[in-house]
Specification:
With 153 residues, the chain is of the alpha+beta class. The protein has helices at residues 47-59, 72-75, 98-116; strands at residues 8-11, 15-19, 25-30, 35-38, 61-71, 85-87, 93-95, 120-124, 127-131, 137-148. Strand 2 and strand 3 (25-30) form a beta hairpin.
Length: 153
């Protein structure tokens, strides 16, 4: 049975939602715990949804997202940049691709900075720019990379 058409997949840091055409969640796939919650019992027998869930679990990889950071003086070239790299979350991100892992990691970092500081935080191109109330750069996070850790865990 295929009740739904135009299914959409919305990916968050630890969950993937399968939504109907109106944006209502039908299924929530917990990528950390590797379990599925059905918001509609009919989804358990829907062929398209079951195929999407199977594809998610078959394609899911575990990534460690890393990035570099520089302060205002380094960004403006007045101070040497150490080029240090560090683990973004102190945890792993479950995603279906490297690009998705980087996007999720950047979104997590933006929310974390907003939750713990009073600075303005924006994603511009492939960088996260943190500015103060006078729009002066405080820090820049850049060079986001991933390491596939799936085979090492």
């Amino acid at each position: 049975m295929n009740k739904w058409k135009n299914l959409k997949k919305c990916t968050f840091i630890d969950e993937i939602y399968i939504d109907d055409e109106n944006g209502n969640a039908i299924v929530i796939v917990d990528t950390k715990e590797r379990n599925v919650t059905y918001k509609d019992e009919e989804a358990k027998t829907d062929d398209n949804i079951q195929k999407m869930i199977t594809d998610i679990f078959n394609n899911l990889r575990v990534y460690q997202v890393e990035n570099r950071c520089m302060n205002k003086e380094q960004y403006e070239g007045r101070e040497q940049c150490n080029q240090c790299s560090f683990d973004l979350q102190q945890d792993y991100i479950n995603a279906e691709s490297e690009e998705e892992a980087i996007r999720l990691g950047m979104e997590w970092l933006v929310e974390d900075i907003r939750d713990h500081t009073c600075y303005n935080v924006e994603i511009e191109d492939d960088e996260i720019i943190i500015t103060d109330d006078e729009d002066e750069i405080v820090e820049v996070y850049y060079d986001f990379t991933v390491r596939d850790m799936t085979d090492y865990l």
